Model the fold of this input.
Amino acid sequence: MTMQSAYRVADELLRDKLRKEAPEALQELEDLNAADVIVTHGQYDHIEQVFGQGGIPCTAVDPRQIDNANLRPDQVIFVNCPGHFSPQGLRKLHQFVEEGGFLFTTDWALKHVVEPAFPGFLEYNGRSTADEVVRVEILDREDPFLSSILGPDDDPQWWLEGSSYPIRVLDPEKVHVLVTSKELGKKYGEPAVFVTFEFAEGRVYHMISHFYLQRTETRTQRHAGSTYTFLQEKGIGEEEFARYAELGADDANLGAVESALTSRGMVSRVLYEKRMQMKRKGDRKKKGTGNDSSKAR
Done:
């Protein structure tokens, strides 16, 4: 129950932080409906479980349903590992992103989806990780969304499930690395953890390992500490502790909640940026202007 409790606590913390520091972003996330977020089932990752615990509406489908799906460019598709699609499904995902959709893939989908559908950006480097936890660093600390969630003293961890696929960046001019790990790079040759690139009108996001973290590791005395210490670090007062206790704060340590908040913050950033992209497109249409030159990295 540790990571399930950690995700519930992290989701509530995310909402509290955004309510205080970025209420417009929180409103955008709360305006999502199930038709906006598509999740394709996988064997090894279960993004839909995190969405369910966090109250994010989504529509879960079998990968085969993508072949004939009526996809819209205002949607985000999350592909659980391993990401097995038919050739028609891959063409459909390519067209979806090309027309403005956002695609989010995890782990083995690097080889099964990103490489064949969007060649020339990323590839699997041919090595496989062990089952271990590594420290990660959020590179884009100036990102207005992530900066409202992750503080300068945070030390987030990332679980690499056995046989995770390291990400080789083929085009550093076009691929933006959002999260990296020196440990990952030292052990497996590639430090990238979470990356993104624009493709035509849309965008692709990919992360190593799985979005649904099934465990974390207490590598320091701080990580083994109380969830309530982490809540205090994030500006949550003791008068709010009872609410967090009901969500399972006593069942998770600081390290687990910190890791859950990192992954939860990543996906929320993706969903928020999709909402902003669609608003920019709407504003352009109203003004009668040309292509959007303000796409966020």
About this structure: Confidence is low (pLDDT under 50) at residues 293-297. Residues 36 and 51 are 13 Å apart (CA to CA).
